[in-house]
């Protein structure tokens, strides 16, 4: 018979304690009343002790018994700094046993946690669902170094690789990428796809009450698997506000806490709290092994106008841009009027340069539909240009393809907001 079990390293009166209780101990020769020798060892994989049954083990410990539910259960109670002191810094122990012999070592997970708690000058980052790199733009602090990005879109991956030529780009569905196929890392940024969790998507895709069943709604599951396997020092997750109350969001928070993380979450409001022109609110979670991190909130509302993020008026370009979509705007106005007549409150959004906020720029903005915001000009409404969208969100793209820029911006984070969070995290980490 062989025994394998995992135990948390406890304490009693500020002394480390390991309590082993199992009927299987008797079948392994660790019967009540026998003596057990405790021998410290040190191997290439770290500290350990061996427990060996022997009648001449005067310096060892005795196996005692506890009766529960009519059964006698052998108990080995190690409560000694001499026996367990060299496991300091490890939260979990792995016990493997054969007849008359047991080996106690830190578990693989314990080594990962121990490494995650170590202080370092630079934290290696992996960006999951990295898109065009709007999150890695935020983690520009010298304490972070991007070592890899994971992305399913070849178009987005190409943009990311141009931004980070030294980082490994892993292209594929994250569900099918094994944790061992990622490079060594200390932190994760996870921009979970929101295409199933947003309120609009739930209605459109028939996922009301069950966004987890959508095509991307389950991607939090492999993320939690990666975290449990590698136990990084920290991870940052983001999604739409409705993710917070979904089964997926609540599961993420509960599971991270059970894994041993200190978890903080918040709904960030860029317009009212971070001095940003966009009203795009997001759910953010920061989980750390070190201690609980407080997500910064400057409580600074946006007080300017959107004009500071726009190109200067240009009669030639403005006329061209307005003329290009003039027929589409006529159709959108008619569509908007029909909805308004039905009392749906649906209307075309046309802003002037003195507007004090901008609605969310969606990834579908290039399709020129009613979900987008347009800018008023003397020649009719025009779309926001790619450079303007980038300035609004605080990031840059190397690609000069307008459609790609709109898509990457719509699926990315607001870089200045997340740079505030990243800089605070850099200050917080040991």
Short description:
The chain has helices at residues 24-27, 81-84, 108-117, 134-138, 154-163, 199-204, 220-230, 247-259, 270-273, 315-324, 326-341, 386-393, 402-411, 415-428, and strands spanning 3-8, 10-12, 15-21, 35-43, 46-53, 61-62, 64-68, 71-78, 92-98, 101-106, 123-128, 144-151, 168-171, 187-191, 234-239, 262-268, 282-288, 349-351, 373-375, 382-383. It is an alpha+beta fold and 430 residues long.
Written account of the structure:
The structure is a single chain. With 430 residues, this protein is of the alpha+beta class. The chain has 3 domains: 3-107, no CATH class; 118-303 and 414-428, Vaccinia Virus protein VP39 (Rossmann fold, 3-Layer(aba) Sandwich); 306-411, DNA Methylase, Chain A, domain 2 (Alpha-Beta Complex). The protein is 29% helix and 26% strand. The strands form 4 sheets. The chain has a 7-stranded mixed sheet. A 6-stranded antiparallel sheet has the order 1-9-10-5-4-6. The protein has a 4-stranded antiparallel sheet with strand order 2-3-8-7. β2 (10-12) and β3 (15-21) form a beta hairpin. α7 (220-230) runs parallel beside α8 (247-259) and α12 (386-393) runs parallel beside α13.
């Amino acid at each position: 018979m062989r025994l394998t079990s995992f135990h948390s390293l406890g304490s009693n009166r500020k002394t480390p304690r390991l309590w082993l209780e199992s009927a299987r101990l008797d079948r392994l020769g660790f019967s009540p009343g026998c003596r057990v020798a405790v021998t410290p060892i040190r191997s290439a994989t770290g500290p350990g002790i061996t427990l060996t049954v022997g009648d001449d083990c005067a310096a060892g410990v005795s196996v005692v018994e506890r009766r529960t539910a009519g059964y006698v259960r052998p108990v080995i109670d190690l409560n000694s700094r001499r026996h367990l002191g060299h496991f300091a810094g490890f939260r979990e122990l792995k016990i493997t046993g054969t007849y008359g012999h047991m080996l106690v070592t830190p578990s693989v997970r314990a080594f990962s946690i121990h490494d995650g708690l170590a202080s370092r000058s630079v934290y290696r980052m992996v960006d999951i669902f990295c898109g065009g790199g709007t999150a890695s733009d935020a983690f520009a602090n010298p304490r972070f170094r991007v070592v890899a990005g994971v992305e399913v879109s070849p178009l987005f991956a190409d943009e990311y690789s141009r931004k980070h030529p030294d980082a490994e780009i892993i292209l594929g569905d994250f569900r099918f990428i094994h944790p061992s196929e990622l490079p060594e890392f200390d932190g994760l940024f996870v921009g979970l796809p929101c295409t199933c969790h947003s309120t609009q998507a739930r209605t459109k895709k028939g996922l009301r009450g069950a966004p987890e069943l959508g095509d991307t709604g389950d991607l939090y599951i492999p993320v939690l698997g990666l975290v449990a396997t590698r136990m990084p020092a920290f991870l940052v997750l983001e999604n739409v506000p409705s993710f917070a109350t979904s089964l997926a969001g609540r599961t993420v928070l509960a599971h991270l806490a059970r894994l041993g993380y200190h978890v903080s979450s918040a709904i960030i409001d860029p317009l009212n709290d971070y001095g940003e022109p966009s009203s795009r609110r997001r759910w953010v979670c920061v989980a750390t092994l070190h201690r609980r991190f407080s997500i910064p909130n400057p409580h600074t509302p946006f007080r300017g106008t959107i004009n500071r993020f726009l190109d200067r008026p240009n009669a030639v370009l403005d006329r061209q841009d307005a003329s290009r979509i003039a027929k589409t705007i006529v159709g959108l106005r008619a569509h908007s009027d029909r909805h308004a007549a039905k009392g749906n409150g649906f209307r075309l959004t046309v802003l002037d340069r003195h507007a004090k906020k901008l609605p969310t720029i969606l990834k579908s903005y290039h399709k020129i539909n009613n979900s987008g915001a347009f800018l008023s000009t003397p020649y009719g409404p025009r779309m926001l240009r790619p450079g303007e969208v980038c300035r609004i969100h605080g990031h840059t793209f190397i690609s000069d393809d307008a459609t790609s820029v709109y898509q990457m911006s719509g699926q990315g984070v607001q870089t200045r907001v997340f740079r505030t969070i990243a800089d605070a995290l850099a200050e917080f980490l040991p």
